[in-house]
UniProtKB/TrEMBL annotation:
It is an enzyme of class 2 (transferase). Gene3D superfamilies: Phosphorylase Kinase, domain 1, Transferase(Phosphotransferase) domain 1. It comes from Lactuca sativa (Garden lettuce). This is non-specific serine/threonine protein kinase. It is a single-pass membrane protein; Single-pass type I membrane protein. Belongs to the protein kinase superfamily. The active site is at 228 (proton acceptor). Mg(2+) binds at residues 233, 246. The chain crosses the membrane at residues 15-38.
Length: 421
C-alpha cells in the first residue's frame, strides 16, 4: 500500500469517529433536553397541586354560607367573594391526631351513625371532644355542613359550644367543648347511675333543655328545628347542666315559614312526632313532641320504644296516658328517687310532658308556654288529649292497619340510634 492511500484511510477513520461523536453528543443533548423538559413539567404540576391545597389559615375560605347551606367559595371576575365568608376556627389534622392519641379506642367517648367521638387534649392542656365523621358516609358530610353553618350563629348556655373544625382531604372533624358527664342517656337508663339524678337535678335538666329549644325556635337569629332531640343528644357538664348537641339534622326556617315537608325522614323512633314519621311534616311542634318524650323519660328513667304497636309495658307514652287517666301518675316516677320529691312538681311535669306529645301539632304548646308552665306554680295548665301513636281501643285493628300502611308509604326513613358520649 502506498503512503498516500494510508493517509487517505486514516483521514476517513477520523471523519467517521468525528461524525459518530457528534451524532452521539447530539443524541445525549436531545435526551437531556427532553428529560429537563419532563422534569420541569413535573415540578410545575407539583407546584400547582400544592397551590390547590389550601393552607390551614386559608382553608376556612373554601366554605361560605348561601341560602342556609355551606357551599364552596366562589369569587367574581375581580376575585371578590360573592357571599359572606364563614368565620370558624380551624384545627390542623395532625394536631387532632396527637390530641386523641391517634384516635385510639381508649380515647373514644361514643359512636353514632355518622362516626365516632373522641376525648382529646390540646397542646395548651385544654380538653376537647372531637367528632370524626365517617369517610364513607355521605350523610356525614351533609351533617358537618349543617353543623358548621349553624354553630357560627348559635350561642347559648344550653347548647354545646363548638370550638372549630378540621377539613383536610377526606378527613372532616368537629371539635366541641368537653362534657365531663357525657350524655343524659348514660345516667338515665343505667340502674346504678340514675340514682345520682335527684328530682332537683332532673327538673333543672328539663328546664335547661326547654331553654335551649326556646332559643333555637324563637330567640336565635334563625328559627332552627333540631329534628333529633333525644337523651343521647343531651350532654351534661361538670355541674350536670344540660346542653343540646348534634345539629346535623337541623333545618333553618326562614321568614314566616312554619312547616316544611321532606321525603327523607331522619331521626330516631321514639322521639319523632307522628306527623313527621308518617308524612314528613316537621315544625317547631315536632321538636316539642320530642321534648315531651324526653320529659317523660327523665321522670320515669325509662326509654320510650316509639313503636305504635308495641305492648303497653314497653310504650312509655301509652303507659303514662293510662296511669294519668287512672289517677296513678306518680307511679311513673323513677323508683330510685321516690323518697325525696315534691309531688305537685312531678305531677305538673308529667302533665306538661303529655301536653307536648299530643297527637295533633296544633294541640301542643309552644316552648315559651312550656317554660312558663315549668317555672310557675300558679299558671293554668290544660288537660292533655291522647298522645301521638296511641291506639284507641275502639278502633285498634283499623288504626293499626292504617298506621302500617302509612309506614310502608314513606319514601325513605333514616333511623339514627347514637350511643352515649
Amino acid at each position: 500500500m502506498t503512503k498516500s492511500s494510508k493517509n487517505s484511510s486514516s483521514s476517513n477513520n477520523k471523519v467517521v469517529k468525528l461524525v459518530g461523536i457528534t451524532i452521539g453528543s447530539c443524541v445525549v443533548l436531545i435526551f437531556l433536553i427532553i428529560l429537563f423538559h419532563l422534569m420541569r413539567k413535573k415540578l410545575q404540576r407539583l407546584k400547582k397541586l400544592e397551590s390547590d391545597i389550601p393552607a390551614p389559615e386559608k382553608r376556612v375560605k373554601d366554605f361560605i354560607l348561601k341560602d342556609g347551606v355551606v357551599v364552596p367559595n366562589k369569587r367574581d371576575y375581580y376575585g371578590e367573594t360573592k357571599t359572606d365568608e364563614l368565620e370558624l376556627p380551624l384545627f390542623d389534622f395532625m394536631t387532632l391526631v396527637m390530641a386523641t392519641n391517634n384516635f385510639s379506642n381508649s380515647s373514644k367517648l361514643g359512636q353514632g351513625g355518622f362516626g365516632c367521638v373522641y376525648k382529646g387534649t390540646l397542646k395548651e392542656g385544654e380538653v376537647v371532644a372531637v367528632k370524626r365523621l365517617s369517610r364513607i358516609s355521605e350523610q356525614g358530610i351533609e351533617e358537618l355542613k349543617n353543623e358548621v353553618q349553624l354553630i357560627a350563629k348559635l350561642q347559648h348556655r344550653n347548647l354545646v359550644r363548638v370550638l372549630g373544625c378540621c377539613i383536610e382531604a377526606e378527613e372532616k372533624l368537629l371539635v366541641y367543648e368537653f362534657m365531663e358527664n357525657k350524655s343524659l342517656d348514660m345516667f338515665l337508663f343505667d340502674k346504678e347511675k340514675n340514682v345520682t339524678l335527684s328530682w332537683k337535678i332532673r327538673l333543672e335538666i328539663i328546664c335547661g333543655i326547654a331553654r335551649g329549644i326556646l332559643y333555637l325556635h324563637q330567640d336565635s337569629r334563625f328559627k332552627v328545628i333540631h329534628r333529633d332531640l333525644k337523651a343521647s343528644n343531651i350532654l351534661l357538664d361538670r355541674q350536670m347542666n344540660a346542653k343540646i348537641s348534634d345539629f346535623g339534622m337541623a333545618r333553618i326556617f326562614g321568614g314566616d315559614q312554619n312547616v316544611a315537608k321532606t321525603k327523607k325522614v331522619v331521626g330516631t323512633y321514639g322521639y319523632m312526632s307522628p306527623e313527621y314519621a308518617m308524612d314528613g311534616h316537621f315544625s317547631t311542634k315536632s321538636d316539642v313532641f320530642s321534648f315531651g318524650v324526653l320529659v317523660l323519660e327523665i321522670i320515669s328513667g325509662k326509654k320510650n320504644t316509639g313503636s305504635c304497636y308495641t305492648s303497653s309495658q314497653h310504650n312509655l307514652l301509652r303507659q303514662t296516658w293510662t296511669l294519668w287517666n287512672e289517677g296513678k301518675a306518680l307511679e311513673l316516677l323513677d323508683e330510685s328517687i321516690r323518697a325525696n320529691i315534691f309531688e305537685n312538681e312531678v305531677l305538673r311535669c308529667i302533665q306538661i310532658g303529655l301536653l307536648c306529645v299530643q297527637e295533633h301539632p296544633e294541640d301542643r304548646p309552644n316552648m315559651s308556654n312550656i317554660l312558663l308552665l315549668l317555672s310557675s306554680e300558679i299558671a293554668q295548665i290544660s288537660l292533655p288529649k291522647y298522645p301521638g301513636f296511641f291506639i284507641r281501643k275502639r278502633n285498634t285493628e283499623t288504626e293499626f292497619s292504617r298506621i302500617q300502611d302509612d309506614l310502608r308509604s314513606i319514601n325513605e326513613i333514616t333511623v339514627s340510634i347514637l350511643h352515649g358520649r
